[in-house]
Structures are given as structure tokens and as C-alpha cells.
Amino acid sequence: MRAAVLAAPATMELQQVPLPEPGRGQVRVKLEGCGVCASNVEPFEGQPWSQFPGEPGGMGHEGWGAVDALGPDVTEVAIGDRVAMLSGKSYAEFDVASVDALVKLPAALAGQPFPGEPLGCAFNIFRRTDVQAGQTVAIVGIGFLGAVLTRLATEAGARVIAISRRQSSLDLARHYGAAETIVMDDHWRILEDVKRLTDGTGCERVIECVGKQWPLDLAGELVREGGRLVIAGYHQDGPRQVNMQMWNWKGIDIASAHERDPAVNLRGLREAVEAVASGRLDPTPLYTHRYALDRLDEALFATRDKPDGFVKALVTFGEPA
């Protein structure tokens, strides 16, 4: 099969590698596509602990496709079933996943792309927010994750204040239900805008979706006394400092909302499949850019640089799914 290999910093190579074989309790999936995650950018560019070359298909963890082969004792799915899976080498034409780490895609999703891992991640993060009807929720950073969380919070009856750098992102937040939008350009003006919108009290819930120091600082200041700060951004490029005096004084709850329990991840994936299949959530506007596998490096650079209108890149195989 063909697989993308991270050969050196910012250098992807397309290689012919052996087809993986499913073991006991596993299936092989012929991939239709794989979403490109912002968490790929730092490993792609190279970190001090990086080793090269990477594994074939490595970093790809948002795959979907059709079951191609069954390992011993697998009865839960059949060859030809379309699935979204939680696996880690999906920048390739085939990947192997445990049968208890995938969800069958219903007929309502036929022909649609389904990068299940980030959709499931959004549902798991939202559960950790404990958003209640009538609350004001600030979402700092409107990309794929922030947009889905905007929809979920609005659906729960909250008033969402979306804060992001680009006008296209703020327009997207409005599409998903945000009541207010604020350009993320000046720290102190943002604080004043949120105070004005909340009668000076701040927000009951603030969700940080960027994964950088300044948005985390900003998010901490926007939480009202006794509120909850939810860290949904993936902070992987080094240590962070926080204003613990302020956090202590305000008595806020902190939720670091990236789940690692496989059962929780699978629950989020199931919830995402149900929500999209039922029409509760339409992620179609979020899939803004598509690339063939041999253009994965371009997809990663776009994920880093975010050209106008960019939200999420999909790598697709053959005809776009």
C-alpha cells in the first residue's frame, strides 16, 4: 500500500510499504480519508524529541473507510461496513483498528466524510464543560473544535460569545449559533467587551480552544467568580504559566478536557455519529480543504498557516468520500 512517512522535519514522503494484517480482535480498514489535526503541525515541523523517519501512516488519527479484512474472532462488523475508527496510522491507504475502537457509520452518512476522532473529541470536551441553559459561554478560538462546541453550547440553551482572530471564523461561529462575536486582537479591549456583555461579571463557562499561552491567559481572565475554565486547546509545544493567584481568588474550576480513556473516547465517537446522522449537527461547512495523500505536506502547511476561510483539511483517497 501507499503510506505517507515523515522523513525529516517538514518533509513527507509517499512510500510503498507492506499491507498491515489485522490481529485477534482487529479489523483492517481501506481508508476513504483522514482528517488533518492541528496537533500534527508541531511533530511535522520537528520537535527536540522527534525521531525520523516516522512510522508509515503515522500521525493520522482521524480516519474513516470500509472494513477490508477481519482478524480472528471478529463478529461485530462485516467486510464492507463503513466505519470511523480510533487509530493512529491513517495517513495511508489502509489502517488496522481494534474492533472496540470503531463505530459503524449508518446509511444516513453514506457518501459523507466522517473524521470521527475530532468530532468525538468535541462531544467529550462538551461533557466536561457542564454548560447549563441560561449561562454565558465564551469560546476562545473558533476553528473546527470551537465551531462544534459553539453549536453544542447553543443547543444546550447557553449564550455563546465567540472570540477569534479571523472574520471568517467569527462568521462561522454565527452560523453555528453564537450570539456575540469579538475579534481576538487586543487583550484589554476583549476584556472590556466581555464585561460589557456580562454586566461586569464575566462568563460562567470559558472554553479555550487554541493551545497557546496568550489565549489561555485571556480565557482565565474571562471566567467569572465560581465559574469553570475548560482547557480544550492541545498544549504540546512546551510548559505554560498560569495566574494561579487570580484562579485561586476567583475560586474557579479547571477542566483539562482531553480524554485518554479509550472507553470515553469511544463514547464521544458514538455520540458524534448519532448527532450527525440525526441532523443535530452538520459538520459539512467545516471541511473546507481536500488533498490527495501525496499532497499531505500542503495540507499540513495549510493547517498551520490557515489561509482565508480555512477550517479543516481532509486527505481523501480516490474519489472524495
From TrEMBL:
InterPro entries found in the cross-reference section: ADH-like_C, ADH-like_N, ER, GroES-like_sf, NAD(P)-bd_dom_sf, Zn_alcohol_dh
One Pfam short name: ADH_zinc_N
Residue span(s) of domain Enoyl reductase (ER): 7-315
The organism's place on the tree of life at top rank: Bacteria
Gene Ontology MF annotations: metal ion binding; oxidoreductase activity
Organism classification: Bacteria, Pseudomonadati, Pseudomonadota, Alphaproteobacteria, Sphingomonadales
Keywords: Metal-binding, Oxidoreductase, Zinc
Name of the featured protein: L-iditol 2-dehydrogenase
